[in-house]
Amino acid sequence: MRARGFSVAQELQINNTDDRVKLRSPWAAALLPFITLGIYHLVWWYRINRELRDYGQAKGYDLGQSPTNSTLALFPGGLIIVPALITYWRGTKRVQGAARVAGQEPVNGWIALVLYFLLAPALWAYIQVSLNSMWRSEAAPLPGEAAPPEPADPMPPPLTEQP
């Protein structure tokens, strides 16, 4: 999906499987729940849990079994608070486990906890950034589609020698 010249999500295929994942905009993960009155967040939570389950099955690891249960823990389970806390905790652990399987730096659990209590949308963006990094290394573009653009080089340009 394209919006105003940038891609909101790009679909990729997990290597050696038919399962697909999406590179999503962290801004979309953080802000669309407000515009859609929370519905996008439920859809996003279901989809990332499904992607983690599929990735885990492809790699031979248990990264969750039921994305539906994870989503139901948010709503209506979130009405009694505890199920929502548990699904966020377990979901973050799944993202950490998937990052380890992929050989990536996992999200920091303490940062995730602080973000959850101070600014939950920042947690959602934090999780999505980690997933995007993982999917870039573990998935390939669909046949006939261009590879996703690499993120900008985090290193500043080197100094030039002055005579």
Give a verbal description of the structure.
- With 163 residues, the chain is mostly helical.
- Helix content is 55%, strand content 11%.
- α1 (26-35) packs across α6 (120-138) and α2 (39-59) crosses α4.
- The radius of gyration is 17 Å and the shape is globular.
- The model has no long low-confidence stretch (mean pLDDT 87).
Keywords for this structure?
single chain; 163 residues; mainly alpha; three-stranded antiparallel β-sheet; 5 strands; 55% helix
Briefly say what this structure is.
With 163 residues, this protein is mainly alpha-helical. It contains six helices and five strands. The strands form two sheets. It has a three-stranded antiparallel sheet. It has a two-stranded antiparallel sheet with strand order 1-2.
Q: Count the helices. How many?
A: 6
**Oligomer type:** single chain
The main pleated sheet reads as:
3 strands, antiparallel
Structural class call reads: mainly alpha
Residue stretches low in confidence (pLDDT < 50, at least 5 long) are none
Distance between the termini: 50 Å
